Amino acid sequence: MHSTNSAYKRFDKINGNFKGKDIVSLDQFSQKDIKILFDEVPKMREIALNARPSKIIEGKIVVLLFYEPSSRTFGSFSTAVKQIGGQTVEILNPQDFSSIVKGETFEDTIRVFEAYSDAIILRHPQVGSASKAAQIAKLVPVINAGDGVGEHPTQTLLDLYTIYEKFGRLDNLTVLFAGDMLNGRTVHSLIKGLALYPKNTLYLLSLPSLKLSRKEYSNFLNLGIKLVELESVNDIPKNADVWYWTRIQKERFKSIKDYEKTSNKFVVNQEFLDTYASKNTILMHPLPRVGEITPKVDDDPRAVYLKSQIRNGTYVRMALLTKVLE
Ligand code: NCD
Asked: Does residue 102 carry a catalytic annotation?
């Protein structure tokens, strides 16, 4: 496996100024940067909910270059650009439909789309691809919309916002992650995000084979965050503020057989939620879910994955694009 840390090290810290910056990793953010972004979100929500015409990035063109499947990240970025007055060029599966089929390199593809746009939003199966694209595209910012098993920083920004909206703070939280710690890029970025705030304790529930790689585990510990790995539901802390459930990342396995060996062991149904969560726990999931939360749970007030978590995706991405492109 890789180390997410080394793939992102060289990127500029935001340091209070988003303008023109590549957004590649949570490593670039401080508490202050996240606060700057969150302060913009209510305004963005107003624009989106009240169909207020907005010209914040009028005249700007944003390329969505997605080499991997996506519903929410693609849909909410596309919506976000339009809500603030920009336009999109949307390239899905370029490996099947663009000149890449003819043998064009990643470098050339990025340089071509750089020439057409004011920003590139990239999803790609390789760890470090967003960093690489950001080094190639010198004239426009690149935003990482998921680089393989690496990171997914904009998902983390919306996840943090969803937690902040509910609890009014991002410190002193108990968070239970479950599912695929090894391959889940949303998990990797969110651990880094929560490590920016004091006194958070993260419990990581997974099969032994889906624990964080030892390298990543120690990299995260070095950030000063408290991590407790669990293998049994009996060890779930009773007082968790947040549950962050994830799917097992099928596409990252060498063979279907290896994937099938992992089977869905930690399934949240109503009884499970009532037994192990508290009254105030919120249940999050980056989606898609593939059986690890039963649909009956959707109506429980604690379940936010199809509610605020989804909507915040658009508002937070609007805020980020505003800050990067203003
Ligand atoms: C996630 C992803 O692509 O990493 N989805 C998303 O962006 N909301 C999670 C997943 O695919 O499991």
From this structure: yes
